[in-house]
Write a structure and sequence with these properties.
The chain has 701 residues and is α+β, with helices and mostly antiparallel strands. The chain has four domains: 1-222, MFS general substrate transporter like domains (Growth Hormone, Chain: A, Up-down Bundle), CATH 1.20.1250.20; 267-376 and 578-661, Up-down Bundle (Growth Hormone, Chain: A), CATH 1.20.1250; 380-473, Domain of unknown function DUF5300 (Immunoglobulin-like, Sandwich); 475-568, Immunoglobulin-like (Sandwich), CATH 2.60.40.2890. Strand 9 (450-458) and strand 10 (463-468) form a beta hairpin. The model has no long low-confidence stretch (mean pLDDT 89). The protein has helices spanning 7-27, 29-36, 41-57, 59-70, 72-93, 110-141, 148-178, 190-210, 224-241, 263-278, 283-289, 295-300, 319-341, 348-376, 577-600, 607-631, 637-660, 667-700, and strands at residues 180-181, 187-188, 385-392, 398-402, 409-411, 420-423, 429-434, 437-442, 450-458, 463-468, 481-487, 493-497, 500-505, 514-516, 524-528, 532-536, 545-554, 557-566. It has a four-stranded mixed beta sheet, with no helix packed on it. Strands 5-4-7-8 form a four-stranded antiparallel beta sheet, with no helix packed on it. Strands 14-11-17-18 form a four-stranded mixed beta sheet, with no helix packed on it. The protein is built from 18 helices and 18 strands.
Length: 701
């Protein structure tokens, strides 16, 4: 097809579907752990990074399986089947109705969902990791040696398919998660958010198998990693055997493998180990980079996502691929040529050092954003404390005095005090005075770590009061809003807000909380008393909680008062863009340059070894995060961000020192020297063989 093997188009389409499946599932994963499986932030972060680490450990197994036993085609097909099953199991495990026998919207047996989710994720990790090193290489195998230009164009198209798949999935699956679905009750639609990636993976498998007859399928030819490992192992073993001083030292410890392995392999292994040594500090970069999908997504849940349209917290991850598309051509076409014109020696290792520094600064920016978020986070009662809020629902002023407090509080009609914090043991009673009447309210049964609202009003020569005990004691999750109503009318009222019915509310009583999605207000409030009147709620924002008092129903509509329990998120998600920008700039100069440097310093037959080493740095980086998340005693999230920034800054300095001692080599030139020496040795062997034949002829004469 236009000079291209037809089979490569099946491979490109397969890669698009597979990347959509993987990144779509991964985008919503940490929120699934937090809000569906009910894990705390640290456990959700640890399991998320364990999964990502496994995804980058398994490519080695996939490469060995393909090169030594099954071949690339059979490896891709078999592991894709495992991958598809894993996505399907994960989707099934996210169905709340599976164990929701009492139909209250929450799973009754969360262990079943955890087990299915973990099985699904393990299968996905083996599937996506196993095929990772095989698909691109299999695509390259479809071209002949004289199709270098077409092969280069294929890899460009292949890279575009990866970014397009990840970009679209990061938009689509968080939007699907934000929908509400369910058989018995409505909740976040995780089955659909995981189900679409599962379908896309099944499509990827079908597309890949459909092109089977058009592929060139090479037989397994052995894995170079085995040879390198054997060479290193033999050198160490041989050196240990000859550790006595009577044996002369050799120039390099790998030279102890010369008794069994040829000079070319030993020299190539030396070059690879020099590069792998520089890989040692690199996991710290990935420890920060992959927190986009965990800590940064959780940070976004406490922010305002109103961009004119409502943005889900996990959709902020789209900033990275968008900036990648913008930054790569700018850096390659503008920044690097400009630096070159200034005659600055900006070597690949220096670029990688700058990338680490930028990533470190990204986490400083994240810490600054977190400090602003913490300033707006409401203070909830700690151990031994209770919070009380007073609301005067009456038409007359009132004064309130706590038994243990000398201060007298004045409350205007429809007025409130906001939440006040007290030691639970000190709360015994309070007195309410209005229009010459007094009422004593007993408080001795209040619980610690709880919030209460005391509502009262003067009503026909008496003071009515009620202590509400189910106030919100945590920030509403996932940017949702909580609303409840108080009926201040002297008769029952049927109230609804938006499409949610609160039912019939008796006089001076309160409804339960109902959940409203963030960024979708204001809502229409309708009250039937028994005639209907309506009005609008205020814009609830994201992550707020309100008690709304129904005050009066007039010809102009309903009069309501909003009493804020938890303020909406006030720090905008746009403030995350600087940290994403810094991290993406770091990725561009670190990741792209790192791979380019590695390939330029490795022999042609050793590139797979370096690819495996590079993927292992990503895996170890995620292991660092799960260790910190599991073992850290840091209570403030901003402090953890600063810790990671400081660690990477220290590693950056260490890497810069290591890089200053590195000597760049040209593997092609070294291989050419070996080839020349081998030719000379072959020619010498041929000459010796010819001389032997000539001697035989002379002796026979």
């Amino acid at each position: 097809c236009s000079g291209y093997p037809v089979g490569v188009f099946f491979i490109v389409l397969n890669e698009f579907c597979e990347r959509f499946s993987y990144y779509g599932m991964r985008a919503v994963l940490v929120l699934y752990f937090t809000y569906f499986l009910r894990w705390d932030d640290n456990l959700a972060t640890a399991i998320y990074h364990t999964f990502v680490a496994l995804c980058y450990l398994t490519p080695i197994l996939g490469a060995i399986l393909a090169d030594s036993w099954l071949g690339k085609f059979k490896t891709i097909v078999s592991l894709s089947i495992i991958y598809t099953i894993g996505q399907a199991v994960l989707s099934v495990g996210s169905i709340s109705d599976l164990t929701d026998h009492n139909q209250d919207g929450s799973p009754d047996n969360i262990s079943v969902h955890i087990a299915l989710s973990m099985i699904g994720l393990i299968l996905v990790a083996f599937g996506t990791g196993g095929i990772k090193p095989c698909v691109s290489a299999f695509g390259g195998d479809q071209f002949t040696d004289d199709q270098e230009e077409e092969r280069s164009a294929f890899f460009s198209l292949f890279y575009v398919s990866i970014n397009t798949g990840s970009l679209l999935s990061t938009i689509v699956t968080p939007s699907l998660r934000g929908l509400e679905c369910g058989i018995h009750s409505k909740q976040r639609c995780y089955p659909l958010a995981f189900g679409i990636p599962a379908i896309l993976m099944a499509v990827a498998l079908v597309v890949f198998v459909a092109g089977s007859r058009m592929y060139k399928k090479s037989k397994p030819q052995g894995n170079i990693m085995f040879e390198v490992s054997k060479c290193i192992g033999f050198a160490i073993k041989n050196r240990f055997r000859h550790r006595s001083k009577e044996f002369p030292k050799r120039e390099h410890w790998l030279d102890w493998a010369s008794e069994k392995y040829d000079k070319r392999l030993i020299s190539q292994t030396k070059m690879v180990l020099k590069v792998l040594f520089l890989y040692i500090p690199l996991p710290m970069f990935w420890a920060l980079f992959d927190q986009q999908g965990s800590r940064w997504t959780l940070q976004a849940t406490a922010m305002n996502g109103d961009f004119g349209i409502s943005i889900q917290p996990d959709q902020m991850q789209i900033v990275n691929p968008v900036l990648i598309v913008i930054m790569v051509p700018i850096v390659d076409s503008v920044l690097y040529p400009l630096i070159e014109k200034c005659k600055l020696n900006f070597t690949p290792l220096k670029k990688m050092t700058v990338g680490m520094f930028l990533a470190s600064m990204a986490f400083v920016a994240a810490a600054l954003v977190q400090v602003q978020i913490d300033k707006t986070t409401p203070v909830f009662p700690a151990a031994g404390q209770t919070q009380i809020r007073l609301i005067n629902l009456g038409a007359y002023p009132a004064t309130v005095q706590f038994q243990h407090e000398p201060q007298i509080m004045n409350l205007e009609p429809r007025g409130t005090t906001g939440y006040m914090t007290f030691e639970t043991s000190q709360l015994q009673s309070l007195s309410i005075n209005s229009q010459g009447l007094q009422k004593i309210e007993l408080l001795g049964d209040l619980l610690e770590r709880k919030r209460y609202t005391l509502i009262f009003k003067w009503n026909n020569a008496q003071i009515d009061s009620d202590l509400l005990s189910n106030d919100v004691t945590s920030k509403p999750e996932d940017g949702k809003n909580l609303v409840r109503f108080i009926n201040s009318f002297p008769y029952s009222v049927n109230v609804s807000m938006g499409f949610k019915e609160f039912g019939v509310l008796p006089p001076f009583s309160v409804t339960n909380y109902s959940t409203f999605s963030g960024g979708h207000g204001p809502y229409i409030i309708i009250a039937k008393v028994p005639y209907s009147c309506s009005g609008h709620s205020k814009d609830l924002g994201f992550g707020s909680a309100y008690t709304i008092s129904l005050d009066a129903c007039t010809q102009f509509g309903i009069n309501v008062t909003h009493y804020e329990e938890v303020a909406p998120n006030s720090v905008h998600m746009a403030w995350q863009i600087p940290q994403y920008f810094l991290l993406t700039c770091g990725e561009v100069v670190f990741s792209v340059t790192g791979l380019e440097f590695s390939y330029s310093q490795a022999p042609s037959n050793m590139k797979s070894v370096l690819q495996a080493g590079w993927l292992l740095t990503v895996a170890f980086g995620n292991i660092i995060v799960l260790i910190v998340a599991g073992a850290s005693q840091i209570s403030k999230q901003w402090a953890e961000y600063v810790l990671f920034a400081a660690l990477l800054l220290v590693v950056c300095i260490i890497f810069a020192i290591m890089a200053s001692f590195y000597t760049y080599v040209d593997p092609n030139e070294i291989e050419a020297q070996f080839s020349e020496e081998e030719k000379k040795e072959d020619q010498k062997d041929q000459d010796d063989h010819a001389d032997e034949k000539q001697d035989e002829v002379v002796s026979q004469m």
